[in-house]
Amino acid sequence: MHHIPGYVSFIHKIATFLKWVGALGALAALGAVWLSPDTRWFRQMGIFASFATAFFFILDILLLIGFCYAFLKLLRYRPPFVMGKRKAYAQKNLRSAYFKDRWQKLTKKYMGVPTSDSMRLAIIEADALVDAVLKDYGFPGEHLADRLMSFTPEDMKSLNRLWDAHRVRNDIVHRPGAGISVGEGKKAIESYEAFLKELEVL
User: Fold this and answer.
1) Who contacts 108 (Cβ-Cβ below 8 Å, separation ≥6)?
2) In which domain of life is the source organism classified (predicted)?
3) What pLDDT digit, counting tens, does each position of 17-30 carry?
């Protein structure tokens, strides 16, 4: 499942905006019903009904102005729709092909005759590749751990496995003397691969 935070946020703002417009519109409509010259209430109120009519007329004008202003402000949060569907699809395929090629080169380079040292390097590169994919997809954050906060295990079944692999990577980077077996290395690489497949990159 792909997350596109900008679009989700924009849709949420649209929904909130429409909710307020609906509430204020209902108030104006109710006023129009009350102030109809055919109603008994209007005839009984006399001059006060005229003042109320003027009030709701001004309210309608303000609602229209407010609607236009809020809509223009809302457009500032719109994600950039800069590409046509065909171009966007083509670019997505190109990016996927690029990342897939990087993954194939990584596995060919380190997984042919795996050793403890080659597994360490493979994990570091695999972690960087996943980070590059998420950054390219627009997930916010400075590091991979930050970007992974955009997901939940319900979104990505392989998320917990990826977190485990990322912790192994951190041990390798921050504890140079930390050993890793070939089996542990393969398990971590399989976790990165599962996540990329679930993202439909591989």
Assistant:
1) none
2) Bacteria
3) 666 666 666 665 65
Amino acid occupying residue 36: S
**141-154, pLDDT tens digit by residue?**
899 999 999 888 98
Length of the chain, please? 202
- Say which DSSP state 75 is in: G
**Whole-angstrom Cα distance, residue 54 to residue 52?**
5
Whole-structure pTM value? 0.56
Separation of alpha carbons 165 and 124, rounded Å: 10
Long-range contacts of the stretch 180-185 (C-beta < 8 A, 24+): 180/116, 180/119, 180/120, 180/123, 181/116, 181/119, 182/114, 182/115, 182/116, 182/119, 184/119, 185/114, 185/116, 185/118, 185/119, 185/120, 185/122, 185/123
**Per the structure block, which two tokens stand in for 117?**
């040292």
Residues 28 and 34: their CA atoms lie apart, in Å, by: 10
| Mean pLDDT calculated for residue range 71-100 | 59
CB within 8 Å of 185: residues ≥ 6 apart: 114, 116, 118, 119, 120, 122, 123
